[in-house]
């Protein structure tokens, strides 16, 4: 290719080491075909997932993966990609995908799904083989809460007259104790909430005791009838989030929130980070990290980072779900208002090693192109753009999660 317009910015964007501040585990080798590969390029499920292969994002990913696997990018189809990856040993496949990324460290939410699917995935520390620094954990608070609910409910399954108050008190106490123990674990660098999926981001600053008791009674009934626990009761969900924020404030651990883009389990209108504003005000000393670019609510997230010192914005997951043009527009929206010392990057990599590859190379390309445009218009210098890249890819996350890492190379 011809020489880049801004060589120092290009070198930083494409080569500077990166901290992946939000990802999930890979599938185990023996389960590498357990889930549809189309999940790599879309949040869609069921029949809708089949339409994802017709998106610009998928066509672009096909082209990029064909180059990675040394296929002809002009003729390779999505089916060819799936066939090619099946012929590669799993360890080699993972190494092939991770080697070009420049990822220094991965922060892994290992509570992605329910117990049955979780058994399909590797432990978080298994991923250490692909990065210079060991992976760290993000504790999913709803998963912790569901396990505790099970523990406090099971001893009472045979009773006809449930005493709700002591069970609720036991749950509250154990939740706080468990999250505190997690905060003391040196491998845990933060918490993660999926309240966005369950009851929405309009987290209340107070849950009436009667509502908490009703929630617990309903959970008890469902578990007794079906043997399943799913935390999806607003009063209880909001209590779990507030407990996590209390613990995180005391122990200086950030809390990540899923915002915006997700599968159809989300009610999109309740996924806007603007709905978090009351709880952000209520916990001024807690650190909030808004995940996934908050897409399509990116500007709203940028506003929150601009007016609250304790709010940070992750520009992830949109790689590779959104087209290249869309990715550049998203980063431009992030840069409209968000202080550049509060921007964090992630792959949201999960299940397939290709998610880490595409999530990295596409983000690096979009970051260069978006910042090159700002430099081109004379709004900042190339040197300033280089520092923005280094902060966004490495230094901001290193500071926010207190990782104490060094990039190892300069660019």
Automatic annotation (TrEMBL):
<feature type="domain" description="Amidohydrolase-related">
    <location>
        <begin position="173"/>
        <end position="401"/>
    </location>
</feature>
<dbReference type="GO" id="GO:0016787">
    <property type="term" value="F:hydrolase activity"/>
</dbReference>
<dbReference type="InterPro" id="IPR032466">
    <property type="entry name" value="Metal_Hydrolase"/>
</dbReference>
<dbReference type="Pfam" id="PF04909">
    <property type="entry name" value="Amidohydro_2"/>
</dbReference>
<dbReference type="InterPro" id="IPR006680">
    <property type="entry name" value="Amidohydro-rel"/>
</dbReference>
<protein>
    <recommendedName>
        <fullName>Amidohydrolase-related domain-containing protein</fullName>
    </recommendedName>
</protein>
